[in-house]
Amino acid sequence: MTELHQQGAKRTFKLVGTRPLRPDGIDKVTGRARFGADMDAPGMLHGLVLRSPHAHARIKRIDVSKAERLAGVKAVVTRDDFKLPADSALADICRNVMAREKALYDGHAVAAVAAVSKAVARKALQLIKIDYEILPNVTDVDAAMKPGAPILHETLRTEGVEPKPRKASNVARRHEFGHGDVAKGMAQADIVIERSFKTAATHQGYIEPHACLASVGPDGRGDLWVCTQGHFMVRNTCAGLLGMDASQLRVTASEIGGGFGGKTTVFIEPVALALSRKAGRPVKMVMSRNEVFRATGPTSSSSIDVKIGIKKNGRITAAQAELRYQGGAFPGSPVEFGAMTAFACYDLENVHTVGYDVVTNRPKQAAYRAPGAPMVAHAVESVIDELAKKIGMDPLDFRLLNASKEGTKSSFGPTYGPIGLRATLEEAKRHPHHTAPLGPNQGRGVACGFWFNFGGDTCVSLNINVDGTVGLSVGTPDIGGSRASMSLMAAEELGIPYEKVRTIVADTASLGYNDVTDGSRVTFAAGMATIKAARDATTKLCARAAKVWGIPAEAVVWENGHAKPAGPNAGNFAPMSLAEIAAVASSTGGPIAGHYEVNADGAGVSFATHMVDLEVDPDTGKVTVLRYTVFQDAGKAVHPSYVEGQYQGGAAQGIGWAINEEYIYGADGRLQNAGFLDYRIPVASDLPMIDTVILEIPNPGHPYGVRGVGETSIVPPLAAMANAVSAAAGTRLTELPMSPPRVLKAIMENGRGA
Amino acid sequence: MRYEAPETVKGAVKLLAGAKGRARVLAGGTDLLVQMHSGMAEPDLVVDIKRIAGLRTIKKEAGGFRIGAAVPSAVMGEHAGVKKAWPGVVEAAGLIGSTQIQGRATIVGNLCNASPAADSVPAMVAAGAKARIVGPKKRRDVPVEKVVSGPGKTALGRGEFVESIFLPKRKARSGDAYLRFIPRTEMDIAAASVGVSLTLDRKGVCTAARVVLGAVGPRVILVTAAAKALIGTSLDKAALEKLAAACSAAARPIDDKRGTIEFRKHVVGVLARRAALIARDRAKGK
Amino acid sequence: MVKVVLWGSLKHAADGQTEVDLEAENVREALDALAARFPKLKPLLDRGVSVAIDGVFYRDAWFAPIRPDSEVYILPRLAGG
Amino acid sequence: MSEIHVSTKINGDAFEYLCDAEESLLDVLRDRLGLTGTKEGCGTGDCGACSITLDGRLVCSCLVLGAEAEGREIETIEGMADGDDLHVLQKKFLEHAALQCGVCTPGFLIAAKSLLEANPDPSETEVRYWLAGNLCRCTGYDKIVRAVLDAATEMRKA
């Protein structure tokens, strides 16, 4: 159940903050909604990818001649069909979607076919001959950093170190953040705790595998239907990889069956376009679950050292961390975000973090909900918990004593504006969960988390229809109810009923560029653009009314869905409703539409505190979650049900990350659990209800005070779980997942069972 | 691939015996179709036995029950008689996969897939169940533990398949139980499992027991020392400790993605203790 | 003059400095001034950065105003899931 | 290889189709009959997105061969609402915001319907275990479980 706590909200809303049914709901409960794999085209072929079974191998020769000769095969593509782009980021994507000199991980694409049926395509894959020279592999981050480790890229030199290295290394970049003097701060400390932590790579685990339908004609015009978090990103990336004009590639976003960051890049889309171009027919590609695990981005696995010093009274004097994240076969792990967010919750004089971005023979990591932050929060919040215990202070009080607040110089530099961290901690302290009794073998854990959120490029169009209804076009795929929140904000601003607005996700030819649905940005940025587009429309509506009345446009205001004379001096006219103005639009100057384009800034950072009770079976090490409460600042909850949903979903994913989920590699570098059977995401019977408390500390950067909520909720749970398991087991757990074998071992060696 | 759905056992045997290439029996299909999906199995012939009327039923026989090879776990779970007599077997069958899998999966399929971690097998072996094998030669009944010869391998000959499982008459004052360890609450393959069936005398002293381990060796392990630890006791703490130690000692697990050797050896003992107590309570009619 | 703070990793490309005083009234002027003073910084800045002005993050916002007393941080380009 | 002719009933209507011997019922529904409301999340029976009922029994259609459906009755998400009248479960999923992305929703609805037919008054635990074969990555299951419990209450009243 949810509680709402508003602080300083000035504006009263009619619709924002209510819980209407989502406009795409009927389609989604009746099976009518069309997801990535649900679209067909006349003459369509089926495309499949051949993937490397080796973690690291030189590709000496690819022979596709037999496959090409198989009846029903219409096209085969390999590295030879992709020209390596000059831009280095695009070149990495190109190498990731189709291996070139080397296969860099188990599952790396090496060829693809398009055939008249899936069965023929499968047969064709078996006819492709690849000569591999198998190379030594490395999948562990610490092993990859050691001298003598197998090198993935001979040309890679570590950036961010001086002097610039001359030898190739698997360390792509070194990042550094902080302020003050950590050595001095540590010297002032009465107690210092230093520990090392590890977290496993986890997959976003969206239920819908990647899927697309590509069609490229001989005139070079293309269409792509795809499940993605950002169809404009898909268009630009694919156009770049295939040498097409952006204008000639129209990308339509299907309904999307989850993404959590994993659908913010491309995998099969450029391959499907290349196959279609070669075959001259539409090509549909749908990944299997096995391919999703082996070849799309999980997040980084990590290895982290944390050291924190405190005075006896609990005040932190210094904090430092070294973070090592492997991001798979290409540079780009989110370690810089890890290093920036590590101590973001604390008001520190002396803080220093260093992050290493490391490549290994694993799939290229993709963004996953607050990329880089949960792992380091796990490490830092574990040490914080231990320090609080050491001085006998309540963990919430300890955090309140040290928490960041408005005016704190953040650990990554900038000074915070109004933030909600302390509010979440105080709310947690007041909550009955905090004082509920615990039974034997049970433990309670709390942890805090931070995420930046961002805005980004956003373009929205709002059309007033002659019947007084409104069509709203946004360019951000609806991944969790955003059509409902956009409709709410448009209706609020226009002063019309929610049901009168229909929000659609427009294709890339119908709207200006929109950044990907990520960074918790949609309700914030697309919401802001929607509000501004609605205001643009009301300005025009007022102008039309002014024309009708024969008074200056400035003398008309928009109120409660009506144009009204601004005051008695403006004239005495009966207010005109939106519908009345719309009905005469053609006669007063033509169609009426509102637009807004912006690179949205001022997203407003977000904080959360999580609290969990769980029980550890001392005989088996199994963890059972008993109670969970999320306290998070939403700025303003536009549709509280979907805000709660984000909180609950983040917590559930974090619970899975904490106790069961992990990428398991053998010595051969092959992924051993590429399926939902052994990659164990939480099932319904694993979880209790997840209680949520929505706090509303308005974001000054948004007209309604909205902050993004999607990502922060996955930052605290890893640590909250670790703190609770450690309390229940009577020994500190430092490695995720806290799987039963690991927990049992800890108990038998150090814990209560010993 | 050819798909056939004969309506008689004879017809099925003929198809299987006469098959050119790889032939597979399709009962619930919850293993076979997964193997086909991943390319691990590419049969030339699939013989669907669900259209054979006699294989879809549970029949009373000699005080026990004969369970047809095409009876899904869900149907077993709805059968009051079997549930009452062999709750451990029914629970084990009820742990195979999700509700959806339960609607299809059969204990015969579970047995013949020959996975070391098959849930229903330790329970069936503990119960002293027999498999009835049909084939080109005459029918034969063999103890369930003799059907599997190794991981993925059975002792079935060409043209043979298991037609039914016979669960014997439940002796007075006896009970069975099955427990497995999985990291989640559902949907996982056992990392270790134990089936226990035991009989008590009027005073509550154990007179007979069968203790069977799953997922801790290439095949299920019937542990005589574990049974001995129980017999002659009323399952006091010392007996249970001995039971656990015997099970841990008998286990021959491997390290893999589902658990470590040391974890499995320990947990199989824990499960044995817990399962034995459930079986005892059932024997006492609790 | 405004004080611009570089995140730690950039100091190698900026003669070891993390704090630079320069003349700039907006983000573009600040980035241009940095690139002009430290040519080694230019490719790193071109790859994309975030600029935090008085606690608010900007990506690619050339004309976001900077006042002489503004707190200005050059930070890695933010991304999200 | 010639295709197999199958006659079956889907959502009360008679259907005939041809399929390959190795083709799953899921592929038949989606690719041959255009019933794409049934989703594929894994193809191995681990996610429940392809849930349907076969002769009234809840199954994963990815683990059924198309050929097996001969003479059987199939129910899919497309048959759940009665024309424009949504099933109580469908209404409750919407009211409780029990879906975010919605791709697992058809499977959950089919599985939940099957639960309430077998057990009209399930406890929270019973709901959770019955639905354990349906994966949802968005919601943490909270709102789904509440929607099912609420639907059960309403259906008992009716």
Biggest beta sheet attributes of chain D: 5 strands, mixed
What general outline of chain D do the C-alpha atoms trace?
A: globular
**Annotation, overall tally of beta strands of chain D:** 5
**Could you tell me how far the N terminus lies from the C terminus of chain D, measured between alpha carbons in angstroms?**
52 Å
Helical content of chain D (DSSP H or I, runs of 4+): 25-40%
How would you name the oligomeric state of the polypeptide chains in this document? heterotetramer
Fold-level CATH name of the largest domain in chain D: Ubiquitin-like (UB roll)
- Walk across the major sheet of chain C and give the strand order: 2-1-5-3-4
* CATH topology type of chain C: Ubiquitin-like (UB roll)
Low-confidence stretches of chain C: none
Rg for CA atoms of chain D:
16 Å
CATH class of chain C: Alpha Beta
Q: In one word, what is the shape of chain C?
A: globular
**Strand order within the widest beta sheet of chain D:** 2-1-5-3-4
Description:
The complex is a heterotetramer of chains A (754), B (286), C (81) and D (158). Chain A has 754 residues and is α+β, with helices and mostly antiparallel strands. Chain A contains 21 helices and 27 strands. About 1% of the residues of chain A have low confidence. Chain B is an alpha+beta fold and 286 residues long. The termini of chain B are far apart. The model of chain C has no long low-confidence stretch (mean pLDDT 92). Chain C is of the alpha+beta class and 81 residues long. Chain C is built from two helices and five strands. Helices cover 21% and strands 28% of the residues of chain C. Chain D is of the alpha+beta class and 158 residues long. The model of chain D has no long low-confidence stretch (mean pLDDT 97). Chains in contact: A-B, A-C, A-D, B-D. At the A-D interface, helix 1 and helix 19 of A face helix 2, helix 3, helix 4 and helix 5 of D.
Summarize the structure.
With 286 residues, chain B is α+β, with helices and mostly antiparallel strands. Chain B has 11 helices and 14 strands. In chain B, the strands form 4 sheets. A 5-stranded antiparallel sheet of chain B has the order 4-5-10-6-7. Chain B has a 4-stranded antiparallel sheet with strand order 11-12-13-14, with helices on both faces.
Q: Topology, please?
A:
The complex is a heterotetramer of chains A (754), B (286), C (81) and D (158).
Chain A: E1 2-6, H1 25-30, E2 45-51, E3 57-63, H2 65-69, E4 73-77, H3 88-97, E5 102-103, E6 109-115, H4 118-127, E7 129-134, H5 141-145, E8 171-179, H6 182-188, E9 191-199, E10 211-216, E11 222-226, H7 231-242, E12 249-253, H8 269-279, E13 283-286, H9 289-295, E14 301-310, E15 316-326, H10 335-341, E16 351-358, H11 373-390, H12 395-402, H13 421-430, H14 432-435, E17 442-451, E18 456-464, E19 470-474, H15 482-494, E20 501-505, H16 522-549, E21 556-559, E22 562-565, E23 576-577, H17 578-583, H18 585-588, E24 592-600, E25 606-616, E26 623-633, H19 640-659, E27 690-696, H20 717-729, H21 740-750
Parallel strand pairs in A: 1-27, 2-13, 11-12, 15-16, 19-20, 26-27
Antiparallel strand pairs in A: 2-6, 3-5, 3-7, 4-6, 8-16, 9-14, 10-11, 10-13, 14-15, 17-25, 18-19, 18-24, 21-22, 22-23, 25-26
Helix pairs in contact in A: 7-8, 10-11, 11-20, 12-13, 15-16, 19-20
Chain B: E1 2-4, H1 9-18, E2 23-26, H2 32-38, E3 45-48, E4 58-61, E5 64-68, H3 73-77, H4 80-85, H5 87-94, H6 99-102, H7 107-112, H8 120-127, E6 130-134, E7 140-143, E8 148-150, E9 153-154, E10 161-167, E11 174-181, E12 192-200, E13 206-214, E14 221-222, H9 224-230, H10 237-250, H11 261-283
Parallel strand pairs in B: 1-3, 2-3
Antiparallel strand pairs in B: 4-5, 5-10, 6-7, 6-10, 8-9, 11-12, 12-13, 13-14
Helix pairs in contact in B: 5-8, 9-10, 10-11
Chain C: E1 2-6, E2 19-22, H1 27-37, H2 41-46, E3 49-53, E4 56-59, E5 72-76
Parallel strand pairs in C: 1-5
Antiparallel strand pairs in C: 1-2, 3-4, 3-5
